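Researcher: Here's a chain I'd like modeled. Treat it as a single chain, no partners, no ligands.
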Amino acid sequence: MAQKPMVESRPETVDNKRVGSSYMPIMYKGLIRAFILLLALAAILPLNATVNFSGLSGAELTQAQELDAKYTQLAQSYSRYYGDAMAFSSHLSAPIARDNLGKFPSLYVGLGIGGSFGRVTAMKSEVDSSLQGNVPSYLVAPNISFNFGMGITRKWDLRFSFFPNVPIALSSDAFGSNTSAEIKFGTYRARMGYHLVEGGFLKPGVTIAGFASYTTGAMSVTQTGQSVTSGSVSLTNVTSKVATNWQYLGIGPEVRVWYDLMFFHPFLGYSLGLQVGQYTTGLNISGDMSVGAYTGTGSIDISERQAARLLSHRLLLGFEISLFLIEIGVEAQVDMVNGLVGGALGTAFRF
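Model: Modeled as a single isolated chain. Structure tokens:
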């Protein structure tokens, strides 16, 4: 008797999987599966850390592994704080005030730049004091995009922003002496807007919109001539190489309210966003180690990957200046979840 419910429940489970599409739209199910698969792939790679110093064993090896654990925390902090800042900056390159482009075939073509900074203070609080010299003075999170828009009707318009994933050298002043750095990032963002209030001269306008985005990029930092002492372990002539990369899929709604003052157009807005993906960091530390009776040359290699699930509540504030066909926009954004602040400047032809 105890087995009968089990036998009957099996076909019910199978049937639910087969006929579940009758309760949920096929496209909706596909999106959910894609997000779940991305999160699963981001989470399956375990952290890998290796101490490569020949002849190191016993108590000396244990102490070296403790230093390795501290470097591992540094790698994880790089992933988290820089990945979060770059995900936030992906929204910072297309300041918009007068959202209504007008009926087809009205066009909007321009270029925008923006940026934010990772939370260095929070990052240093997570890193062991012996390694805080490896944390840059600033975690610059820039963004650039080419912006295009088209009015479909007076109520609807479509905007698209993109920037190819190309490398850009960063100034060593932001990272300290004996340091070189390079960053590359790509942004692809589509936004469909519906104008609840179309606006006009000396009139307000209100737009609700939805966006979808894909953000990817990487940063590498190389530091030379370092010395590190942690407990009884000493590293000299150290060269450290950090390489972190990220990729996110994002969706979310947005609302903007603006006022048309002919040449000057202030605006306020709010956006709710969900970004999911992964960030990965590799860390290589090479140099001369001294611990106890052991001295030798070698390296510590660390690689780790983390799943990223970012929910943002962003406040938008800015203005736009219209000079006939040319528009110049300025925007500031604040993420109320993690406290990140950023700004954007853009210019465009509108005709």
